[in-house]
């Protein structure tokens, strides 16, 4: 098992610009279809236990690892769901195994992307074109959005969101959703 296992998460987010006034209605919907259950700690910010149908929505690859859904005596690390709501939008990317995004214009990997992390656009060092952060191909290792659903304790490609989940999120929000992995 890779050492960074405990530090990686799967993130779901709207594929295109999308803003939400408040996240309570979204949380209610996620609870309704049993993707999440109750809040872990009402004081903490938006952490939820996995719901009864969690494994219908997230498919684990290979021989299914024994997934911990609660803290145990041996480990305080477990799989839970966290909702992040940022204003303005934020780029979440891997600290470990970071990959250069591909420029939407020349399709080449951009080397200077780390300089532009707090900006809304990046000037490609290959073709000198400036493009929106959203339009870069982040190759499933980063995402730029106001809203993220984080599922903790998932190593890159260890688990994949099922189409039924992406469809439900699209129904609730009216926009397409996508996903990526990030390790701290
Ligand atoms: Zn370029």
Task: Describe the fold and architecture.
The protein is of the alpha+beta class and 184 residues long. It folds into two domains: 3-63 and 77-93 and 144-183, TATA-Binding Protein (2-Layer Sandwich), CATH 3.30.310; 100-137, no CATH class. It contains three helices and ten strands. It has helices at residues 24-32, 54-57, 163-173, and strands at residues 8-14, 36-39, 47-50, 58-60, 80-93, 121-123, 130-132, 142-152, 159-161, 177-183. The longest helix has 11 residues, at 163-173. The radius of gyration is 17 Å and the shape is globular. Residues 1-5 have low confidence and may be disordered. Zinc ion binds at residues 103, 105-106, 108, 124, 126-127, 129.
Layout of secondary structure:
Elements: E1 8-14, H1 24-32, E2 36-39, E3 47-50, H2 54-57, E4 58-60, E5 80-93, E6 121-123, E7 130-132, E8 142-152, E9 159-161, H3 163-173, E10 177-183
Antiparallel strand pairs: 1-8, 1-10, 2-3, 3-5, 4-9, 5-8, 6-7
Zinc ion binds next to loops.
Order of adjacent strands in the largest pleated sheet: 2-3-5-8-1-10
What's the domain count? 2
Bound molecules: zinc ion
Strand residue content:
25-35%
Largest sheet: 6 strands, antiparallel
Write down the CATH topology of the largest domain: TATA-Binding Protein
- DSSP E strands, number: 10
What is the correct CATH architecture of the largest domain? 2-Layer Sandwich
Radius of gyration: 17 Å
| Content-based structural category | alpha+beta
Structure annotation, total helices: 3
Give start-end ranges of low-pLDDT stretches.
1-5
Distance between the termini: 16 Å
- Give me the strand/helix succession: EHEEHEEEEEEHE
Output the CATH class name of the largest domain.
Alpha Beta
Write down the overall mean pLDDT.
88
Globally, the shape reads: globular
Q: Portion of residues in helices?
A: 10-25%
